[in-house]
Specification:
The protein is an all-beta fold and 115 residues long. Helices cover 0% and strands 50% of the residues.
């Protein structure tokens, strides 16, 4: 069975930083392109960042609510999201999944940005 366990969220002031982690199990992590998604309160999930299976390429859409860097450690089956210069609009639940969203979603990790 596939599991995604997201962690690292919390309460941070505007301008602050967080580093999210997603520990995966149950599939061959290194075979899959991976993504981070965000669900803001009352909204649908939206793409935050994508990284190829080897980590050799990534795509992070420009965002007015923070600066994001995605990375991965295939030896640890773990995906990361470094979040800097966070704005209140970055508040939401963050999830990881394969690029094709092939597996059930995990519980996510909650990020709250406020003064």
């Amino acid at each position: 069975q596939v599991y995604f366990v997201e962690s690292g969220g919390g309460l941070v002031q505007p301008g602050g930083s967080l580093r999210l982690s997603c520990v995966t199990s149950g599939f061959n992590f290194s075979w899959y392109d991976m993504t981070w998604y965000r669900r803001a309160p009352g909204k649908e999930r939206e793409l935050v960042a994508f990284i190829s299976n080897t980590g050799g390429s990534d795509y992070v859409p420009d965002s007015p609510w923070g600066r994001f860097t995605i990375s991965r450690d295939n030896a640890k089956n773990t995906l990361y999201l470094q979040m800097n210069s966070l704005m209140p609009e970055a508040t939401g639940d963050y999830y990881c999944n394969t690029r094709a969203q092939m597996f059930p979603w995990g519980q996510g990790t909650q990020v709250t940005v406020r003064s």
